[in-house]
Fold this protein.
Amino acid sequence: MKGGCHCGAIKFKTANDPFWVGACYCMDCRKISGAPYTVWTAHKSEEVKLIQGDPKNYASSKEVVRSFCEICGSPFTYRYISKPENIFIPVGVFDNPQNFKLTEHIWVSQKLPWIHITDNLPQKEK
């Protein structure tokens, strides 16, 4: 699957479909996206290839490094420092994300009170 940031400066492709798709309601994801939650895809790091551009990295916590496009600000990746073998990419930067299937909801303990989860997928407090 292919994707890129809003302005087109960053382009990437993945070798396989994601092994996990989750909606995250944490405050950090709300802040970086400007939305009430972010839906992430998880991939093996070696299956994601940068085709164009140079995302900027920053440590959003002691455990996490995020990247984004420095031109348009699109969020690009999320990585746990302790698990470099996995990379998380927001569904919104994929060219054709319509076939992704949500697998769970995480950080529902920080969900805004007016967000109502109506499916039967697993929900994790953290």
The first helix runs from residue 27 to 33. Strands lie at 2-4, 11-14, 20-24, 38-44, 48-52, 56-59, 64-68, 75-80, 86-90, 104-106. The longest strand covers residues 38-44. The chain has a mean pLDDT of 95.
